[in-house]
Amino acid sequence: MLHSIYATSMSRNPEEPVYNRIEEARSNLGLSRQELADKVGVHYQTIGYLEREEYSPSLVLALRISKVLNAPVSDLFSLAPFKKGK
Questions:
Q1: What is the mean pLDDT of the chain?
Q2: CA–CA gap between residue 58 and residue 53 (Å, rounded)
Q3: How many CA atoms lie within 13 A of 65 on its CB side?
Q4: CATH number for the domain including 43?
Q5: Which residue segment(s) compose the domain that 43 sits in?
Q6: Is 12 exposed, middle or buried (0-12, 13-18, 19+ CB in 10 A)?
Q7: pLDDT at 85
């Protein structure tokens, strides 16, 4: 019984989506997904998952991406959808 109560009260809430502009910034620099992945130390499929907003990056990964794409984290990632055209 204690295990059930613990599992119920300690379950994680679903994560908020993290919106991003990785694809736009990457394309503007002429980088492929593979090239960006190599520079930040992840598999190229991870970049695809991030760009499709199917995966939220760790803070470390977001900072690495920001550095490689030469853009502030706040320009690349947001908890609210980005407006089109910016």
A1: 87
A2: 13
A3: 28
A4: 1.10.260.40
A5: 19-70
A6: exposed
A7: 64
Quote the Cα angle for 54-60-63, to 5°: 90
**SS3 per residue for 13-32:** CCCCCCEECHHHHHHHCCCC
Tokens in use for 62?
């977001």
> Which tokens in the block code for residue 29?
């620099």
83: confidence class by pLDDT, cuts 50, 70, 90: confident
Distance CA 54, CA 2 (A): 34
Across the range 15-36, mean pLDDT stands at 95
